[in-house]
Design a protein that fits this description.
181 residues; alpha+beta; Protein Transport Mog1p, Chain A; 8-stranded antiparallel beta sheet; 4 helices; globular
């Protein structure tokens, strides 16, 4: 029996280096356990910029005119990107001023929350909720108002030149329903 135990001990020592990658340090009881990599805080993608003339594929200009209360003189759209499969839509009024912008970010939950927090910071905004688990914030801004909500890795951010957030909320509801988000 002693020879079988010795043979197993030798086999165990001989196989102990199989899982070690070439050039990797030898495992040792004296080394502290490896630290987990630091988590990186999610960051909102950069705000979209208009890149081409519209129309907006998911929101008619007539809806914006009715809800926002201003005539839409032109519509511009952004390019699509990894976190932005739907173009942002810019609804213009006189003198090419943006009266309303839609921005939809499709990413992980942390990026969606970071996008909402960048648009309507938790510290300064009112709680905004929509049916289906959408939550975020709404608030007046220096240029109007913002309504921003997220759910399951998708953020919907609506900015308006109106001081009231109700119009932006109604646009967010329409965008979410139209796109089936």
């Amino acid at each position: 029996m002693t020879s079988v135990g010795a043979l197993l001990a030798v086999a165990g020592v001989g196989c102990s280096h199989i899982a070690t990658a070439p050039g990797a340090p030898e495992p040792s009881d004296a080394q502290p356990p490896a630290e987990a990599p630091a988590t990186v805080a999610a960051v909102a993608p950069p705000a979209p910029q208009p890149a081409a003339d519209g129309p907006c594929s998911y929101l008619p200009a007539e809806s914006v005119q009715t809800i926002n209360g201003e005539r839409v003189t032109a519509v511009r759209v952004s390019k699509t990107a990894t976190h932005q499969p739907y173009p942002a839509c810019f609804f213009l009024t006189y003198h090419d001023a943006v009266q309303l912008r839609t921005w939809i970010v499709v990413a992980g939950p942390q990026t969606a929350r970071a996008t909402v927090d960048a648009a309507a910071p938790v510290a300064t905004s009112d709680l905004a909720e929509l049916p289906g688990g959408w939550s975020g914030g709404s608030q007046p801004t220096a240029d109007g108002a913002v309504f921003a909500v997220a759910r399951h890795g998708t953020a919907v951010v609506i900015t308006t030149n109106q001081q009231q957030t109700i119009g932006a909320r109604r646009i967010a509801e329409q965008v979410i329903a139209t796109l089936g988000l």
